Amino acid sequence: QLQASGGGFVQAGGSLRLSCAASGRTFSSRVMGWFRQALGNERDFLAAVSWSDTSAVYADSVKGRFTISRDSAKNTVYLQMNSLKPEDTAVYYCAASSSLPTLRSGSWGQGTLVTVSS
Length: 118
Description:
The protein is built from no helices and eleven strands. Helix content is about 0%, strand content about 50%.
């Protein structure tokens, strides 16, 4: 299971850090990542990180503002979000899978809402 947390209300320019704790079968996943879905939009990929090393990939829309990291001891992946914009408002989901290409079809957390005011 994946448990996402850390969402909330923040003003534009502010920061938030999301957390996603993995347990059970998802504990053995090799890749974890973050997606977001704004109202009326599709679920978009944001970032992913490998458990085996620190390699990470980012969507162009968040590169330079968002940073994904993982704490193996806590089985937790984080998404540090800086310089937030109103268009970052969305429900943020974490996902886990055996590989990056299969991440979207892997296991999902319940989502955490981020609201950025202008």
